[in-house]
Design a protein that fits this description.
alpha+beta
Length: about 280
C-alpha cells in the first residue's frame, strides 16, 4: 500500500489552495457555510470547556476549608503509616530476639512484657509489667532486656501482672556473679558477690591477686543457665580500688550497660513445663 509522503501532502495542499483561488466566490461561500454547519455541534461544548478553564484560578487558596481538610487528612494518614511501620519493625525485632533466645536455651520460653506501673508497695525501684500468672509467669522468673541484660526478677504475681524487683535494688539482695577475663574464657572467670549500692551500681570485693581491670564483663552466676556458657550480663567493671581496711583486697564497682530505671520492655524467662506454661 502506498502512503503519502510529507512532500506529497504539502504539494497537494498547495494545489488545493491554488484551485480555491480560481473558484467562483459563490461556490467558496457555499463550502464555507457547509464547514460551519459541521462545526455547530462542537461549538457549545467547546464554549463550556473554555468557561471552565477560565474559571480555574492560577493558584489554590491555602486557606480554603476544603483544601485545609484534605491537607489535615493527608498528614494524619502519613503519621499513621509511620506509626504502623515503626510498630511492624518493633514486632519483627521482638520476634527475632525471642527466636534467638529459644535457640540459645530451648529449655526455657520467653514472654515479652511491658512496664505498666510502679509497684503498689510504694517502692519506686520496683515496677509492674502487664503479664502474670494467667500466662504462666512464676515468682522467681528472670527479667532480661534485649535478651541479655539482667533487669531483675519477678517477686510477686497476680493473674494479669507481675512485680519486678530490679537487680540494682537493695531489696534484691546480694548477687552471685562471675567476672570474666579479658579473653571471655569462662574457665578463667572469677567468682564474687555484688551488693546493690542503691544508685544503679554494685560493689564487690576481690583479692588483689585477681587480675581484674576496668571494662571487664560481669555476669550472673547461676546453675540454672545450663544450656549457655554464662548467665546474663550484670554489667561492666567501672572502677577498681584498694579496700581501705583490707589492703589485700580490691573493691570493684560494677555498672549495668543500660539505665535499668528507663527500661520499658523486658523478656521474662520461664522454664518449659513449669509455671503453668509450655
Amino acid at each position: 500500500m502506498n502512503h503519502a509522503t510529507p512532500n506529497r501532502s504539502f504539494y497537494a495542499a498547495v494545489a488545493a489552495l491554488l484551485i480555491a483561488c480560481f473558484l467562483p466566490s459563490g461556490l467558496t461561500n457555499f463550502l464555507a457555510g457547509r464547514v460551519g454547519e459541521l462545526a455547530i455541534p462542537l461549538s457549545a461544548p467547546l464554549q463550556k470547556l473554555s468557561r471552565i478553564v477560565r474559571a480555574v484560578p492560577d493558584r489554590l487558596d491555602p486557606e480554603d476549608p476544603e483544601l485545609v481538610r484534605l491537607r489535615t487528612e493527608n498528614e494524619q494518614q502519613r503519621v499513621r503509616i509511620i506509626q504502623l511501620e515503626a510498630r511492624a519493625a518493633a514486632m519483627a525485632e521482638q520476634l527475632e530476639r525471642l527466636q534467638t533466645l529459644k535457640a540459645i536455651d530451648p529449655s526455657f520460653r520467653f514472654i515479652t512484657a511491658s512496664r505498666v506501673a510502679e509497684s503498689a508497695v510504694g517502692r519506686t525501684d520496683l515496677f509492674k509489667v502487664n503479664v502474670g500468672s494467667a500466662t504462666g509467669v512464676p515468682v522467681g522468673a528472670y527479667a532480661l532486656y534485649q535478651g541479655y541484660q539482667l533487669v531483675g526478677r519477678v517477686s510477686a504475681v497476680s493473674p494479669r501482672s507481675a512485680t519486678i524487683t530490679p537487680v540494682t535494688s537493695r531489696a534484691y539482695g546480694p548477687v552471685s556473679a562471675l567476672v570474666l577475663p579479658a579473653d571471655g574464657n569462662h574457665a578463667g572467670a572469677m567468682p564474687c558477690s555484688l551488693d546493690p549500692a542503691g544508685d544503679g551500681t554494685f560493689a564487690g570485693v576481690l583479692g588483689v591477686e585477681s587480675p581484674v581491670a576496668t571494662g571487664l564483663r560481669v555476669v550472673l552466676r547461676d546453675d540454672e543457665w545450663t544450656q549457655v556458657q554464662t548467665g546474663p550480663l550484670i554489667g561492666f567493671i567501672e572502677s577498681v580500688a584498694p579496700k581501705d581496711d583490707a589492703p589485700l583486697w580490691n573493691t570493684i564497682v560494677v555498672r549495668p550497660r543500660f539505665q535499668l530505671s528507663d527500661v520499658g520492655v523486658v523478656d521474662l524467662r520461664i522454664p518449659r513445663g513449669g509455671g503453668g506454661g509450655n
